[in-house]
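Attaching the record inline, Q. Sequence:
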Amino acid sequence: MEDFVNVLALSKEQHEWMLGLKAAKVYADAGAEKDEKKALAKTQWLTQWLDLEQTAFKEQFSTDVCALRQTPYELCQRSAELLAEDSGLTWYYLAVMEAELFIPYGPLYGEEEKEKNKPFKGLKFHSADFVKQFVMMDGRIPVSFIDRVNKTYKDAIARMDGRFAKIAIGTLSAVAISAVTAATAGTFAGPIAVAIAGSQFTFHGAALTSASLAALAGGSLAAGGAGVAGGVATIVGGGALLGLAVGGTASATITGLVIASPKLALSTAAKLEVTIREVLLNAQRDTASAQQVLASYKEELRRLKHLLVDMEAEDAANKEQIKVLKTSIGYLTKSTKSLDRFTSSFEIGLEVENEAKA
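Structure, as predicted:
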């Protein structure tokens, strides 16, 4: 894995901290729920989601899921320990971003086990300010970062597809996740399974669908193989679009993701925009990493365009997949053009600022 890949990667301990923050977010929401039955259902959803996460990411865990259930104060203590080991804040920004965009109570089971989703149907998430309050409590990054994450994510979605301009972030996330059942039942089930759990995946059928739903709800993909050996557990921040998830099978993974559903491509591209704009540039001023990630993004887009040409030249049997791929490519093209403009403007502004200080 190239050095810049680590920009979008979390270690096992950092991945577990992120899951702990997400779990605390759900516990806070369940605790604030006035309806006892709904409160219990929310807690049960969390338990099942964490169990499925550990199933999907078994190589990426160093502890039992029970240890992930921490109070905000305990999470603050743990972040201090992790930052003492890794003084850089990029992983922290990414984990907080993922926790903020995480919307719980989505389906955890596919068509074969859809009855298991019934207890969670209709559950609403109400604790929208939890992550912002945690950031204020932990005091490591500006609270304004949370507002920028939400605005940039929603603006990116609206720019790529105006039909979603007035839809709430939670709905956008649910729209993306809703496509997974069909994806894991189709041609790209294998590549998506590798993307979820790494090259040693053993999932198929209902188990594959559940693992995929849990992982995509959580927003991270397995690094797998050499990544784990090198200390990288998961890829976050939309890195799946860069082929960072699974080494040699990366191309198949990206193809699977963008052909599985344009909505999944749309959601992932929006998250990658947040990563480049808000984490790497506005927060970290890391123009070198931003340019490298953007270059990789554009290279994957070029590969997908070549794939489309090949598919169109073959036969008419791929008509539906061609249609989906065209839509996804349209989203990614708009995204990369917007990032090009933003990155160039940011660098010019930084140069002017540095000259003024000189």
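Confidence is low (pLDDT under 50) at residues 225-230, 245-251. The two ends are 37 Å apart (CA to CA).

More tomorrow.
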